[in-house]
Design a protein that fits this description.
Length: about 190
């Protein structure tokens, strides 16, 4: 196995029906699974909205966010992952969990959001793209332009601290914000 496709370890599901389960994660450039501490905080923030939500994980990577949402009883979670070897491992993890509420699309997120429209808008969206590629704001624009979001959606963003606050639509109200090391993460509520 090449270095770019080598195993780097595991993620641990921290809550819900699969709490404590460990899943394999493959190495890939730009892949940085959201830490347990950040996920714990995020899912505490999301608690009022999560049960039976329709979720979208725009840059699934390890699946840490989308799988955690499914473990905590989101009704449906759509995952988008571009890298083939990462998507294969993610599908293996979905199969191990026998998680019918998780749907994986192997696709470039920007192209996927540009060319498709959801049957049902998403209540919760996770945007945690690879850093230093300018993907966060482009993703935000496409989500609004192509009507991916429910009227009262909550949107999670994660970006490098030095990037600063992303430009978001006027109807996205900042609900919570925190910094952990070099990562700034925010939760917006669409109004």
């Amino acid at each position: 196995m090449s270095k770019s496709a080598g195993k780097i370890g595991q993620i641990r599901i921290i809550g819900g029906q699969w709490r404590g389960r460990k899943l394999s994660v493959l190495d890939s450039e730009g892949l940085r699974p959201t830490t347990d501490r950040v996920r714990e905080t995020l899912f505490n923030w999301l608690a009022p909205w999560l049960s039976q939500a329709n979720c979208l994980d725009c840059y699934a990577g390890s699946g840490a966010l989308g799988i955690e949402a499914a473990s905590r009883y989101a009704a449906q979670v759509t995952l988008i992952e571009k890298e083939a070897h990462v998507a294969r491992q993610l599908q293996k993890n979905i199969d191990v969990l026998n998680a019918s509420q998780l749907t994986l699309h192997r696709a470039d997120t920007l192209q996927f959001l540009s060319q498709s429209r959801p049957d049902t808008p998403f209540n919760i969206v996770f945007i945690d793209p690879p850093f230093r590629r300018g993907l966060l704001e482009q993703t935000i624009q496409l989500l609004e332009l192509h009507q991916w979001l429910a009227e009262d959606a909550v949107i999670y963003t994660e970006n490098e601290v030095e990037q600063g606050m992303p430009t978001v639509p006027a109807n996205w109200i900042l609900h919570r914000e925190k910094v952990a090391g070099q990562v700034c993460y925010r939760l917006y509520h669409r109004q």
